């Protein structure tokens, strides 16, 4: 709150990033506990099925902890120069984050959806990676990438007066992400039960010897269906990229890592 009142936003941007990742955790972790296909036997409409899907995310206790942390995100906005505009932008960002996580969880239940996510991640890495690692004006490239991110838009809304463009972009992102939630949910229902290849090139042929090896093999085949290991790999990649790109890596950034 003190930083926002002085026109500084790095701390608030870190909070927004943390909330974005936290909101995706219950969505991804609950994707296989309550798959969309298990609702097919109910005589309900698509809107009602989606409502059940969303409400089922509130069953675990940690989901309520994340909801409470998300609501606490509005507290620092009291000291911002434009608290009401910042609150509206933050609400749009929360909607976008939830819808983004739901879309990812629905796509992970579909074979083509997982391939699409892997393709998009590869394209993003090939696009952003060279800009960060192989350009002379690296700091300017990083600043440009951050300037067009939704997190920077929300933070700038709290301290800047010209916010209509940010509102428009955040509203479009929220609407598009909500449409993707409905579309991906419909695709997951039409795809049938979750199909995971039993003869995957890596996990299908991987087998450890002994009784303990059988347990480890089953665990590996189970964990490859969850989002948690991939989030861990993503965070490790971000940390390694920061070590490579950062001119003077700060110790305080490694606490969240």
Count of DSSP H/I helices: 11
Question: Could you give the distance between the termini?
Answer: 23 Å
Q: Can you give the mean pLDDT?
A: 77
Structural class: mainly alpha
Instruction: Report the principal-axis shape.
Output: globular
| Strand and helix order | HHHHHHHHHHH
**Beta-strand level of the residues, as a percent range?**
under 5%
Roughly how many Å is the radius of gyration?
Answer: 20 Å
Uncertain stretches: 196-201
> Level of helix content?
55-70%
Main sheet record: none
Number of E strands: 0
What do these coordinates show?
This protein has 257 residues and is an all-alpha fold. 67% of the residues lie in helices and 0% in strands. It has helices at 2-5, 10-29, 46-55, 61-71, 83-107, 111-133, 138-147, 150-159, 164-190, 210-223, 228-245. Helix 2 crosses helix 8 and helix 8 runs antiparallel to helix 9 (164-190). The protein is globular. The two termini are 23 Å apart. The relative contact order is 0.14. Residues 196-201 have low confidence and may be disordered.
What's the helix and strand layout?
Layout: H1 2-5, H2 10-29, H3 46-55, H4 61-71, H5 83-107, H6 111-133, H7 138-147, H8 150-159, H9 164-190, H10 210-223, H11 228-245
Give the gist of this structure.
With 257 residues, the protein is mostly helical. Helix content is 67%, strand content 0%.
Keywords:
257 residues, mainly alpha
């Amino acid at each position: 709150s003190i930083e926002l009142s002085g026109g500084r936003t790095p701390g608030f941007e870190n909070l927004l990033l943390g909330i974005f990742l936290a909101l995706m955790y219950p969505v991804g972790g609950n994707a296989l506990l309550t798959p969309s296909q298990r609702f097919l036997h109910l005589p309900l409409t698509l809107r009602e099925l989606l409502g059940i899907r969303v409400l089922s995310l509130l069953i675990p206790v940690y989901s309520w902890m994340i909801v409470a942390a998300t609501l606490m995100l509005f507290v620092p906005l009291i000291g911002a120069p434009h608290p009401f505009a910042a609150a509206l932008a933050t609400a749009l960002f929360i909607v976008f984050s939830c819808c983004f996580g739901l879309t990812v969880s629905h796509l992970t239940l579909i074979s083509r959806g997982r391939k699409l996510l892997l393709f998009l991640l590869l394209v993003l890495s090939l696009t952003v990676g060279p800009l960060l690692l192989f350009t002379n004006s690296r700091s300017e490239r990083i600043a440009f990438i951050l300037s067009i991110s939704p997190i920077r838009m929300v933070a700038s809304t709290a301290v800047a007066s010209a916010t209509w463009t940010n509102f428009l972009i955040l509203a479009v992102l929220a609407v598009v992400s909500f449409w993707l939630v409905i579309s991906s949910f419909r695709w997951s229902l039409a795809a049938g039960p979750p199909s995971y290849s039993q003869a995957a090139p890596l996990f299908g042929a991987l087998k450890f010897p002994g009784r303990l090896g059988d347990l480890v093999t089953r665990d590996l085949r189970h964990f490859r269906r969850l989002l948690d290991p991939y989030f861990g790999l993503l965070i490790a990649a971000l940390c390694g990229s920061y070590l490579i790109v950062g001119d003077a890596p700060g110790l305080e950034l490694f606490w969240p890592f």
